[in-house]
Amino acid sequence: MIDLTNTRTMVVGGSSGIGFEIAQRVVRLGGHVHLAARGEEKLRAAQARLAHPELSHMHSVDMQDDAAVAALFDELDDVALDHLVITASSAVHGPFAEVPVSDVIAMFASKFFGPYRLAKAALPTLADGASVTFFSGVLSRRPGMNTSGLGAVNAAIEGLTRGLALELGPKVRVNCCSPGMARTEAYAHLSEEAREEMYRATGESLPLGRVGLPGEIADTVLMMMASTFMTGRVVDVDGGHMVRQYATR
Q1: Distance CA 90, CA 35 (A)
Q2: Does the structure show a pLDDT above 60 at 162?
């Protein structure tokens, strides 16, 4: 059993999706959770949905802003963090020849340099034995069509995970969760019909025959946080995406 009683976990991207499910599990296991995201309204709504909102703390932050990130950790005063989980990210899809370079640079600024900046700023607040968990994706190791930029940024995050695990150990463990497609708010911009068709088509290509649920990925992250002999690892929780049957061109 995982016991997080009296621990402190910061979840950046904790106002929705996988991040919220991680936060929900932390408070149910007795831990304090620091929810961090850009939108205050979404943060307040997420905090109200927690099983134990009295164990939560809310922080509005733009992880691409150095001053805002510094202020985030200043808000903690003398509180030491036991776990830092960074789920917030962005993605760019499209043919290599057509996607503007500026879009890929913006994706790296958010999905790579945002977590990089957060982990660096968090160092003074991390307790001995703390964990940091990044998020990537299987495109780093099994590319798909029209996702070269996204595969590259995922590979960069995984490289950072291994490098920091070596450099920051034994004080801090650093791991990376590589999730497959899950039913989250990330696809809310699509119509319900388009979203369900995407889930169906992706699910059919997976050994498990379906896409994931945010809670299934959150459960894996909790295991990574609790496993005190795990560091430098990229853990796939993807319904078998790494062995899926891709369609031909």
Answers
A1: 18
A2: yes
